[in-house]
Amino acid sequence: MADQRSDRLIIAGFGGQGVMSLGQLLAHAGMLEGKNVSWLPSYGPEMRGGTSNCNVIVSNAPVASPIVTRASALIALNMPSLDRFESAVEPGGILLLNSSLINRRVEREDIRVYYIPASKIAEELGNIRVANSVLLGAYIEARGNVKRESVIMALKEVMGPSKQDLVPINERAMKKGASLIRELTN
Amino acid sequence: MKKVFTRPKSLTGKPFHYCPGCTHGIVHRLIAEVMDELDIREKTIGVAPVGCAVFAYEYFNCDMQEAAHGRAPAVATGIKRVHPDKIVFTYQGDGDLASIGPAEIVHAAARGEKISTIFINNAIYGMTGGQMAPTSLIGQVTTTSPYGRQVDQAGYPIRMSEMLATLDGAVYIERVSVHDIRHIARAKRAIKKSFELQIAGKGFSLVEVLSTCPTNWGMSPLESLDWLKDNMIPYYPLGVKKEAE
Amino acid sequence: MAKVLMKGNEAIAEAAIQAGCHYFFGYPITPQNELPAYMAKRLPEIGGCFLQAESEIAAINMVYGASGAGARVMTSSSSPGISLKMEGISYIAGSELPCLIVNIVRGGPGLGGIQPAQSDYFQATKGGGHGDYRMVVLAPSTIQEAVDLVMDGFDIADKYRNPVMLLADGILGQMMEPVEFKKREAIDLAEKTWATTGHKGDRPRNIINSLFINAKELEDHVNKIYRKYEQIEKSQVRVETYNCEGADLIIAAYGSTARIAKSAIEMADKAGIRVGLIRPITLWPFPRDSFKKWAERDHVKSFLTVEMSKGQMVEDVSLSIEGKKPNYFFGRTGGVVPTPEEILGEIKKVMGGTRG
Question: Domain A6-185 is of which CATH architecture?
């Protein structure tokens, strides 16, 4: 029987935190590995300043519904996102949250929660905008159905010639996120 | 024997359906003569309106498209963008151009679409039977202004040429009349100029032609010509409204 | 050719360009704005023409003009904008002009909302504009299928000289999936000898027109275009059936909703309930025969039509199955998307006999 593994993510945060591009990179990397992927953004008034979110599916089987109602993983970049989507994580799923901006603990015991100070790490690396990459690196290490090399390849394709200089810092951010997961798990 | 008067090649020869004394026939002929003189019949695509001239596609002896009411400038835009090397004109009445279709004519002019529009203003709806037009004069009696056009109820007649002349995309706007021979000659010069400007690739141009509608005005053809001269020209002054350098 | 990750709206635009469509006329409206934006960037690069019209009404009439002039041409919009185009679509059908119209449907009626919906089914398949006419309506459920149907859609439009609509929704417009732009065999299409191109003196003049003032002439004209529609009904029906063999219940759904239904069917399978899916790909012509065939099977006890509307396609499903089996309906509307769990709940109700 074919491997039916499918990762179904909700990724949410403020507009401008790189929520959409985080999801796109993951989908793109999955595609490069020959997997079935979909990326579905929220659209509408919430794009303008409020919270934004996207659904990503990376699956070994064809994607049926592209809408994630029961998530295998939630990446929450800010407090409203955690409040809104915490309950959507299925039992046994994982939740990665940006603990630099979220100061509460998660009460649920049927999911695995990782507290990642992504914004703080990004600032230490010299660019607050790579907080999303810290979380992406962490996710791949914790659960991901794709390899970091594929994400880097996707990043290079998406960035275009003028922004290639941003690839190394994003790569460092991903590595940093991954090493945090290793510390937390060991 | 030398032939001194004949039908222009750019008319099909199908007899016009227009009422006796109507000036549509004169304007059709002027356009056809211009097409002949400029030798553009075989590269011209005309757009017919909805209104009395709805059958214009049966009269002009060139490729033609029939447009929805008011939309001739949009249809012409589609044609001209596909065939920028061809000559495209619209022929529209006052209900078509000034009532239901101002958005299309204004934006075609604003974009500087390289088309020619011949705008027939006879201050009334002809085909539907004599209703008030946006260009009907104050006090003018029609079936939908039986007490005469009242400003407090129906507002003011629109001077489309003056309005369009404010747009940078328009290269040439002139209002002419066909109530006598001298003015008919002047009208032909204006139509020819409009087509010449298009051939030269200059931009949008429009010729507004003050016309008569004896049937719906309830007058004889001769009375109509006088009424046009005495009532329409004072409100719609003739002349060039816009001419780009 | 390698797959690329693309938004539905952009993939539709690229597919149109690759199908040889070099003319686009449109007007902004959410949720299809990425489509004209893509065209505005790409068409000038290949010598085509993108024009932002002053209104949807003007845009569809520009399509009329360009199509009448012989070009492959399209427009796109979303529900309220499509309503404005309906007069023009009627003229295009009446004048027998080919074009592609994309509707990325949002919730209605009125200004409605901007979230995905399927409540324009009636408008697309039953007329929308005035008069006796039909429009081929293609309903993709993945972005790859949208790309393939855009390419086929232009060919169908040209072959039959008739407008074709791609009916998608906000989910398909906004989502990204990997797509492949397959090299296609050019199909044999007749030269557009009817187009107004300036007649150059070597052919009789052409007229693009839908006015027939004589009633008998108009009837003849309509009968002529209906003979085309008969041909289309015979040869252009497309449908996907999934898991129907041995199914107790068959879901009827199209577009995004069919994907959600597939997720519900997988869940039902795990719960030991055998559910199938009939997914019309052409909404007109409607795959009547397929529905009828499955309705005649003994193992199929009932149908459940699922839509993002208050129930529109459900009428065509009922007509097709001719009362042989009950046809239940479940829908969410206004931009609310049904979940697989909700659909599974309905499946269980129907199977348990608790649906009246």
Answer: 3-Layer(aba) Sandwich (3.40)
